[in-house]
Amino acid sequence: MKKTINIIIKKTHSRLGPINSQKKVALGYAFNYLIPQKLAEVSTKGKLKHLKMLNEIKLKKDNQNYINNLNIKECLEQIIKIKIRKKIGQNRQIFGSITEQDIINKINQITGQLITKRQITIPNIKEVGIYNIKITIEDSIYTNIELQVLPNII
After folding, report:
1. Domains of the chain and CATH, by start
2. Distance CA 136, CA 154 (A)
3. Average pLDDT taken over every residue of the chain
4. So what's the pLDDT on residue 125?
């Protein structure tokens, strides 16, 4: 009698591994715990073929997403400097502050690329000057843009 069985993992579990992966476990563990809890299902040829197809689709989608993110990075790297004018008071301090939304609007105006607030890391900007902004497009893809805050001349 078989003592192990191949299963496909359907939900995250600390001992099993990632979702949609195949693993060999004890027969009793599979039928008494994993399958009734809907954490896994029995592996068959049809299910393995379907799983392989899903993994290939996910891989193609991830590759396309990575290429799109590299294109966004190239567009953002063409920006040498962003200039924003603000009204100033004493000691070269600006009224209000520069926010992520100000930078998003300026980047969209220059390149047409849409980025989110979570992708932008800016220092606390309270004075006129030059600052570095880090834009993280993906975990491993990021770029730095120089921001110049200028006094508003009427």
Report:
1. 4-64 (3.40.5.10), 68-151 (3.10.430.100)
2. 35
3. 90
4. 87
Report how far Cα 38 is from the mean position of its chain's Cα atoms: 29
Structure tokens at 137: 């497009």
CA 126 to chain centroid, in Å, comes to 29
Tokens standing for residue 46: 């049809």
pLDDT in tens, 17-71: 888 889 999 999 999 999 999 999 999 999 999 999 999 999 999 999 999 999 9
Whole-number Å distance between alpha carbons of 92 and 87: 10
What DSSP string runs through 43-105? Answer: --HHHHHHHHHHHHHHHHHHHHHHHHHHHHHHHHHT--EEEEEE-B-GGGBBSS---HHHHHH
Apex 113 CA angle, 61 and 77, nearest 5? 95
Do 2 and 43 touch, CB atoms closer than 8 A?
no
The pTM of the full predicted model, rounded to 2 decimals, is: 0.69
Alpha carbons 5 and 29: distance in angstroms, whole number: 9
Reply yes or no on whether the pLDDT at 154 is more than 70: no
